[in-house]
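WARN no homologs supplied; continuing
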Amino acid sequence: MENKKFLDEIKFDFLKNYKNSSLQKVLFPEVKKYGYKPLVIPIGVSRYNVPFDSGYIEKYGRVCQIEFNESHVSLLIGMRGSGKTFLLGSIASRSYKSEVIPVFIDLKGEYVYINKPLQKKFSEQKSLMLKDEEPEGIPVINLVPYFSLKYQKFNFDFVPVQISFDELTINDFYTLVKREFTDTQREAISKIFSLKEKGKIKNFYEMLEKLKKMPKFNYQTIKQIDTSIRRLIDYGVIGSHYNFDVITPLKEGKAINLVLKGMPTEKKSEIYNYYLAYVALLIRKIFHGKENGLIPKKLKILTVLDEASRFIPNKGEPSSKHEIKEYISRGRYLGLSIIIATQVIEDIDPSAYAQLKYIFLSYNVGLDVLKRICKEWGVIEEERYYFSDTVKSYYRKMTKNIRTGHRDWMLIFVENKNGVIFRPLAPLFYHLSE
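OK structure emitted
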């Protein structure tokens, strides 16, 4: 009843920022320092405040918010069934209302219908919506790798895309060909791509001819590369029939959804790396679009990267990993934010999430993971590797609440060493529930 009463008193005007509350001044110290109203996004109703340095818990049913004035990296750890898609949808849909355009890497087709409003079974639950909020879809363009149409049919509107020869980088080449090369062979391939950049090699067949003339490649190696490239062309992985355009939709205010439905879980699969190269190209196009002024400077973009361990693995160097790390390290100056979502943090390259602003933890990750996260990012002091009984008690309540149908989350504000246990608001757009 407390939360419902508080929700009824809230009116969120999408055209204006929230007023500077005392809570905001704690969570966003720049309000005190600079005196401006931060661009904040409501994502849920907080149930308990968790300042780790003291262990003091204060119950206060307030709106839980995150800030988008500056670009940032967030880490979201949620096990299967934790409501991860629900929370990501809540963040993305309300971000769009504040003119932050979401870009999804969608492995299950969970965001293909977000142009439709949220279903009534969710929107009619007052505890899931703020007062005066209305379900509303957002304009989206679903991009589907052309080669994946050979393996399955899609029953939603989409635009097929391909990787063209001009867009192919040397890292994409290594990812797609998927074989080991010696150092001397890599040196030769680098020279070929240098010629490509100068316009002296204009297609894949000319590239193959150049490779055949190089003494550093034996007949067997050339044959394997030839087979790999011809397969990529035959499958439609690379080609020029379908343009991979992300600049135009973003300039029009449309969300981007790269649909990777059908991507195998087994890395040894022949087509696994094909999907990685498409993610690399998407990220690269957005980054270069912002860097070169093709995308308006003032336009903020939020990339939602689910199952991140596939694209920025701790082991291996796919082109997706190279592009995402570049996006993270330099994107903050270009208005580019990203949410890295995963089930197992150990499978992700640690350098990808070295500079975090927010950490989201689901009810079912366990206290051991919470301890490790807080220690690694300095939320608790290294010599004090424990939590007070009150913190443990309220974190365990998150697990118990699942029995009542509620999936609570903990949000850690890394800079302020503060945490909030909150219950997510529903997405405003269509939620594809299992």
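The radius of gyration is 23 Å.
OK
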